[in-house]
Amino acid sequence: MKAIFLIFLSSLIPFFLLSLPPKIQTRIEQLVRDNPRQLSYAEYALLAETVLDRTPCNFLVFGVGRDSRLWVDLNKAGSTYFLEDNPYWLNLIKGQIPDLNAYPVVYNTKRKEWKYLLKKPEVLQLELPEELNKIKWDIIFVDAPAGWDDECPGRMKSIVAAASFAHAQKDVHVFVHDCDRTVEAIYSSEYLKDKNLIKTIGKLRHYHIQ
């Protein structure tokens, strides 16, 4: 009976989650329990599997959070960098992870401007530290800035920045979270292109620009 139950339980869990090391599965489970409105099990697993498959790599993450340590540890032999516009979160997470490669960034946009800005990539150029502009990225994860209402910065600039790196450098995996929302979905399709979309899990889109 126990064996049957375990087989049934396994059928409910995505295959790529089962292929992760048990310690990583446990950490993902803890993150999901502690942060129920963030990434799901399956979303974390898809991104984690890609990082493990390509490590050591150069990994750029838009946004710091309680999962920042996970991304650093998964890419232990590589280089992981973070961009954050919220001073509170930047200071909080850097206080917990003093050696975190995290940089402040300013967006100067409002989500309500998204329609006007959609066809204006020249206005959407994001000013980044020169060090980051020189890096050949392997994986980029867009999970910031905030975009839940019209007064938030919205993810127009972060998606355009990720797309600019990917199209210029090639062989870049780009993940965009919260693609159930209009801005994330439309900007991802516009700049990352649907032909490069290889998987959607929940709210997470996975693009591979070759």
3D structure, described in words:
- By secondary structure, the chain is an alpha/beta fold.
- The chain has a single domain, classed as Vaccinia Virus protein VP39 (Rossmann fold), CATH 3.40.50.
- Helix content is 43%, strand content 16%.
- Strands 3-2-1-4-5-7-6 form a 7-stranded mixed β-sheet, sandwiched between helices.
- Helix 9 (156-169) runs parallel beside helix 10 (182-191).
- The longest helix has 14 residues, at 41-54.
- Mean pLDDT is 93; it is low at 1-17.
Structural descriptors:
210 residues, alpha/beta, Rossmann fold, seven-stranded mixed beta sheet, globular, Conserved putative secreted protein, disordered N terminus, 43% helix, transmembrane helix, transmembrane, 10 helices
Topology, pairings included?
Layout: H1 2-11, H2 15-18, H3 22-34, H4 41-54, E1 58-62, H5 68-74, E2 79-84, H6 87-96, E3 102-104, H7 114-117, H8 130-133, E4 139-142, H9 156-169, E5 172-176, H10 182-191, E6 197-201, E7 204-209
Parallel strand pairs: 1-2, 1-4, 2-3, 4-5
Antiparallel strand pairs: 5-7, 6-7
Keywords: Membrane, Transmembrane, Transmembrane helix
Pfam family, one: IRX15_IRX15L_GXM
Main location: membrane
Mean pLDDT across all residues, rounded? 93
How large is the radius of gyration? 17 Å
Q: Could you describe the largest sheet, including whether it forms a barrel?
A: 7 strands, mixed
Structural class: alpha/beta
Low-confidence stretches: 1-17
Specify the CATH class: Alpha Beta
Question: So what's the overall shape?
Answer: globular
